[in-house]
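@channel sequence for tomorrow's demo:
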Amino acid sequence: MPERPRLTPAIADLRRATRAALAELPTDSLMLVALSGGPDSLALAAALAFEAPRAGLRAGAVIVDHGLQPGSADVAARAARQAEQLGLAPVRVLRVDVGAAGGPEAAARTARYAALEGAAFELGAAAVLLAHTLDDQAETVLLGLARGSGAASLQGMAALRGIYRRPLLGIRRSTTVQACADAGLEPWTDPHNADPAFTRVRVRQSVLPLLERELGPGVAEALARTAEQLREDAEALDSFAEELAEDLAEHAEAGISLDVPALAANPSALRQRLIRLAVSSEFGVALSRAQTLEVARLVTDWHGQDGVDLPGIRVTRRDGRLLFESTELSATGREPDGTA
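structure tokens (generated this afternoon):
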């Protein structure tokens, strides 16, 4: 183990945030940190190496080599050595093949998460820590706002979702950089993080600094607070929708139906959630806002019109109910009735 660094404000902030993320985990559970070697993940790895043993937990690291840059294998090997020097074990380096679906950023993210989930399953890890910071959260919210992606995108990243935990969503990127410097750690600087070809880099380097200059300091913190508030509201509405669905929904021969008067009596936010919930739970299809609103018109703007065609689904209004039916062959081998 390296000599313990002196406790500085930055190191204390990292350790405190990490400690909170480890609370209530079973003793001797394995925690993994997703380590790139950059300042955010390296600072988190150091904090995990310190806090995990004190919480009765084991701590390891997973380094994903995307193979997208020359020398990526050397960068991954260096990060693995740093993890081992911090006392993390096991330490795994995983080389992935990045596809092209959704663009380079999305494809790399898909490959990375698949690798992390595979490693967590193989090693029996209780959770994987991700080093997204408050700055990352602010960038995510701003990008979602610019794209008109709706409340789901404006909620940003969840602190806890499935096996993933993000302890640093309340920590600024400058703090992770300072924590590395205070601990004598030398992070790797990813050239992609300075490449303006990437939209997120332009937001980081140009848009957020402009907002700070023109609107005053604290924009990133305000965006992160907005994400947290929206997430709280969305979780409450989703919970209400799930409770209502138990009363409104009935299974049909080729799908599911919802009571029209009950849908009409609910606010639009709940009505649209009920529609999306019915489709996702029964057919595994995620509706866009435009698709959801088309279905909602069968409730709020009904003039006897034909139904709405969705991917693999037809929605019609019959006898006071919205009927969602699969357009695939039914189990009896006949097409479901698609009449209005």
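heads up for whoever presents: The domain at 253-326 is CATH 3.30.465.60 (Uridine Diphospho-n-acetylenolpyruvylglucosamine Reductase; domain 3).
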